[in-house]
Amino acid sequence: MNILVQTKKRLSKFLKAFFQKKRARIGIYGPPNAGKTTLANHIAKDWTGEDVGPVSEIPHETRRAVRKTDISITGSNGSNITIDIVDTPGVTTKIDYKDFLEYGIDKETAVTRAREATEGVAEAMHWLREDINGVIYMLDATEDPFLQVNIMMIGIIESRKLPVIIVANKIDLPDAAPQRIRSAFPQHPMVSISCLEGKNIEELYEKMVEHFG
Amino acid sequence: MPHRCVKCGREYRTNECEILKGCRECGGKKFIFVPLVEREIEPKHPEDVAIREEKKPKEEENTDIIPVTDYNRLESIRIVSPGTYELNIEKLAGSDERVVGVGKGEGSYLVDLLSMVRPKKKKNRK
Q1: For residue B62, what pLDDT is reported?
Q2: Which among A111, A118, A129 has CB closest to B117?
């Protein structure tokens, strides 16, 4: 009897591996300090009750890509998606340890942080090249979206034919201008949110179910 | 054209046909053509030579270039100063990813994002 149960379990596992739809891996990309980890934490907390990683006001706090698996998101119409969220290090073309010194970090730590951040950029790009099926591109609504790195990243994502949702974060701040982001990338769906206050996050979930489902 | 006597080092300026007869100082018959750029760099008087030699060791102390001993370096190219580069041959040969280090020490980098998303080149099979 025991053997029969075991065989049944093995068979169902084998069939699952064959016929189950592969979960989509959604990468959260964007420049440093846009709020990627805050969003990843928000999503993970809402749907699994756990955090993804620590956040900080110092840029490049996330220097290794962190994956949170099996996040099941349900839309208002009842449709459901199960995804893996990959919180990636901030992508930028220039990293200088001197930028960290103003946050009170000593030189040695700043140099190490710069090195790790550069490795983090490379890791984020590897994920994009190999394992990502959809992208949430996160931007700080108080910053200029027309930066070379943003244009280049959106171009790379488009060239890989990946579905993308642009997220304008920090709309709680007085100088936020999400409209500027919308006009920069009118070809993609955009959601304006405040991760810190949890504003409009539901709208983002709806967009995620719609675009990554 | 400027020429210099190989034997005694005396220089003869443009259009001096007398070098055909030999050097005025030592009678040497061999002359070397001196390009203008080299002439600008080279000191004119022996005293200058002495001053330059004295200065040289100090300059070397100031440059403080880190020798390429750390093979775990992140960057494939380092711009030590304008016009001075260090190439990480191992990294350049190993991957197409380009990270450029800036300055003498570590901690400042420029990243070529496009080089990181290009598909890996397929090896030629014969």
Answers
A1: 45
A2: A129
Residues in A closer than 8 angstroms to B112, CB to CB, are 93
Dihedral of the CA atoms B1, B2, B5, B11 (nearest 10)?
A: 140
Query: What six digits make up the tokens of A208?
Result: 């995620």
Long-range contacts of A178-182 (CB under 8 A, 24+ apart): A178/A141, A180/A141, A180/A144, A180/A145, A181/A139, A181/A141, A181/A145
Query: Would the CB atoms of A114 and B117 count as touching at under 8 Å?
Result: no
Q: Is the pLDDT of residue B67 over 80?
A: no
**ipTM tops 0.90:** no
User: Is A127 in the B-facing interface, judged by CB distances under 8 Å?
Assistant: no
Contacts of B101 in chain A (CB under 8 A): none
* B114: number of Cβ within 10 Å: 13
Q: Given this model, what pLDDT does residue A20 score?
A: 53
- Confidence (pLDDT) at B23: 83
**CB contacts, 8 Å: A135 with chain B:** none
Tell if the CB–CB gap between B107 and A152 is shorter than 8 Å.
no
pLDDT at A95 over 90: yes
- The answer to whether A138 touches A35, Cβ cutoff 8 Å, is yes
- A149 closest CA partner among A164, A160, A138, A162: A138
Residue, of A195 and B60, whose pLDDT is higher: A195
Quick one: DSSP state of residue A23?
P
Burial B14-50 (b: 16+ CB within 10 A, else e): eeeeebeeebeeeebeebeeeeeeeeeeeeeeeeeee
Note the CATH number of domain A23-212. Answer: 3.40.50.300
**Could you tell me which of A175, A162, A174 has the C-alpha nearest to residue A212?**
A162
Q: Write down the pTM of the prediction.
A: 0.71
Q: What is the mean pLDDT of residues A115-143?
A: 93
Residue A182 has pLDDT above 50, yes or no: yes
Q: CA nearest A149 in B: which residue?
A: B113
The residue of chain A nearest to residue B96, with distances taken between CA atoms, is: A122
Please give, rounded to a whole number of angstroms, the shortest distance from the CA of B106 to a CA of chain A: 6
